[in-house]
Design a protein that fits this description.
340 residues; Rhopdopsin 7-helix transmembrane proteins
């Protein structure tokens, strides 16, 4: 009798169908193992890239962020494999579902940061403006708030049978998912502002390696994939709830793995091999127009260190300024440093 009471108490198994359904050893464990291997490979690659760059004085934090994203996904898949072997463990299912929703947010934020760098290079006055900085900070805070609300709603929903509370949890998840969907579209609007607003070519800057066009294409493609990922989540969440015994097609395992992990692996295949650590690198401490290319004086009064992948400006003792590439050695007959 006590065992029945224990089973009837919280946490309660969801009565509505969820995307991915109840995992089973076949096919979930083999499929999850394949994705697990891929995420481990990308985690090792991104951390290696960061460590090699850091030893050369080329600090690129987004590589660490991608490593963290891969580690979150490794945890997600380990939890799903464990859940497949312990299907009645409700706490395990809650943890697995939370990590499914949380991991990709790192990529959403990184993509907006890359779009922001393009805007600042093409439209320095707009990109570095104080109102826009405030807007970005509010947007990032909104992502953190959405994550907290999702975790709270998912956790609370399995500890109550109250209809009003369950509806409130659903409303919170819908609001958070819709916000994240809108967030994934923002890089496209930022790119549009960078290229469509009137601009002064003399004020434009460059950063990192590769052309600005290639950078914009990367951000645009990743944005579309993020919209696909978030749109599937939000779209299925807004559909009328269905009982666990009568799931829709989008609740199946194939849509779950394709629109979540497969799309994310494609994103990693774009960001990692195309070396975003070189393409989107900017000098540490950049905080005003001109800092990307090192052509302005910093707030401390000294000249900013030139971007590793752009032309450097070297001043001679006679007050003149000449531009050289960082790779070039001074010519033997160059006597500008001796002029008075």
């Amino acid at each position: 009798m006590s065992q029945q009471q224990h089973q009837a108490g919280p946490p309660y198994a969801p009565k509505t169908a969820g995307v991915g359904g109840l995992p089973a050893i076949i096919p979930d464990v083999p499929v999850s193992a394949v994705f697990l291997f891929l995420y481990v490979a990308f985690a090792a690659t991104n951390m290696t890239i960061y460590q090699v760059n850091n030893k050369r004085g080329h600090k690129f934090i987004p590589s660490v962020a991608l490593f963290g994203f891969c580690m979150a996904r490794i945890t997600t898949l380990v939890l799903r494999i464990a859940w497949a072997t312990r299907q009645t463990n409700i706490r395990l299912s809650v943890a697995a579902n939370i990590f499914v929703n949380a991991g990709i947010l790192v990529v959403y934020v990184l993509n907006l940061i890359f779009a922001q760098r393009i805007l600042r290079a093409k439209q320095p006055r707009v990109g570095w403006s104080t109102p826009l900085r405030v807007i970005y900070r509010v947007l990032y805070a909104g992502v953190a708030a959405a994550l907290i609300m999702v975790i709270t709603a998912v956790s609370l929903s399995v500890y109550t049978l109250n209809t009003y509370t369950l509806q409130a949890c659903r409303d919170v998840q819908l609001a958070s998912g819709t916000y994240l969907l809108v967030f994934t579209t923002l890089p496209i609007f930022v790119l549009a502002a960078a290229y469509l607003l009137p601009r002064n070519s003399a004020e434009e800057e460059t950063f990192g390696s590769g052309s600005m066009k290639s950078k914009a294409i990367i951000v645009l493609v990743v944005s579309c994939l993020c919209i696909l990922n978030s749109g599937f989540r939000s779209g299925t969440a807004w559909m009328p709830p269905r009982p666990s015994s009568d799931p829709a097609w989008y609740h199946g395992k194939a849509p779950f793995y394709v629109f979540n992990f497969a799309v994310e692996i494609i994103i990693l295949c774009i960001l990692t091999p195309l070396r975003i650590d070189k393409r989107f690198y900017v000098t540490d401490g950049s905080k005003a127009p001109g800092h990307y290319s090192g052509s302005r004086v910093g707030s401390s009064g000294g000249h900013k260190e030139p971007n590793h992948y752009s032309e450097a400006r070297i001043g001679s003792s006679d007050g003149s300024v000449r531009e050289v590439h960082a790779e070039k050695e001074p010519r033997p007959n160059d006597t500008s440093s001796t002029l008075v």
